[in-house]
Amino acid sequence: MAHEISKNTMNTEQHPMGKSIMLHLIPGAAATLLFIITAPILKNYRLPSVLAFLLAAVLVVIPFEFVYLLFQAKKRNGCYSLKGIVRYCQKIPIWQYFVFVPVLLLWALVGGIIIAGPIDNFLLRTFFSWLPDWFFLENFIKNISQYSKAVLLTILFSGVVLNCMIGPIIEELYFRGYLLPRISRLKGWEPLVNISLFSLYHFFTPWLNPGRIIGLLPMGYAVWWKKNIYIGIWVHCLVNTAATVAMVVFVLKKMST
User: Fold this and answer.
1) 87 within 8 A of 181, measured Cβ to Cβ
2) Bridge partners, 86 (sequence order)
């Protein structure tokens, strides 16, 4: 069975590199365009730009990626089953999750924040400081006292649902389950290409590319090596959850003062 799964993975349709790059980047480019259009409008109504980010996730990123997978499923299978569309679903022993996930999570946090943090900050100060204040999502934290409790609770609830669960699951199905196997001809380079393009797809925070690549590259290789996207789903969800929990605690503390 393992040999059969490996063989089927190797026989997966391969995307030309131009097509693969476009499929990696288009949803992020479209979401960033919507963010750029809506964030200044929200600012005029004294609403934080993070709402524009959440709106882009709901209206562009999640629908594009999930609907594209369903479209490919319908075309290939005649129904909306993702069998054969989302690859790298090979089973691994349960104990391996308890090894891979904590180690990869720790590296994503340490490598992506502590090690790459100075590089990210240098890029921000040197090349992107000219961007308007609403472009920086962290300004939501700095100006939190300006917003009503209703707005804050809406952001917190939406952030937990979208950023901790729905968003990372859909992204892993799309990027690691669909796009990654379709550049398997690169013979070991595909996780680097996939993770790099996944990082670039976050057009609204280009200064964080070094941290994202350094932090997530081992996860990409683990998914590729074990042919198991569930490793990526767990790590991605937990990384996002760690960041979201920190924000939730901070916001709730501010709301109570």
Assistant:
1) yes
2) 83
Which pair of structure tokens corresponds to residue 15?
């995307």
- Provide the number of structural domains found in the chain: 1
Q: Which amino acid is at 94?
A: I
What's the start-to-end Cα distance of the chain, in Å? 59
Could you tell me where the DSSP H helices lie in 83-208?
94-109, 117-127, 139-142, 149-161, 167-171, 190-200
> Considering Cα of 215, then 216, then 218, then 222, what sign does the dihedral take?
positive
Tens of pLDDT, residues 101-121: 999 999 999 988 888 889 999
Domain holding 213, by residue range, is 2-256
How far is the CA of 254 from the CAs of 52, 71, 140, 213, 229, in angstroms?
Answer: 22, 44, 12, 32, 38
Instruction: Tell me the mean pLDDT in the region 17-23.
Output: 98
State how far Cα 52 lies from the chain centre. 17
pTM of the entire predicted model: 0.93
Determine the Cα–Cα distance for residues 212 and 50; give it in Å rounded to an integer: 19
Beta-carbon contacts of 144 under 8 Å, excluding residues fewer than 6 positions away, are 152, 251, 254
pLDDT in tens, 143-174: 888 898 999 999 999 999 999 999 999 999 99
- Buried-exposed string 125-141: b where 16+ CB fall within 10 A, e elsewhere: eeeeeeeeebbbbebbe
Those residues whose C-beta lies under 8 Å from the C-beta of residue 132, and which sit 6 or more positions away, are 40
Strand-pair partners of 83: 86
Give me 106's structure tokens.
Answer: 């720790």
Radius of gyration (C-alpha) of the chain in whole angstroms: 19
Q: Which residue has the tokens 């799964």?
A: 5
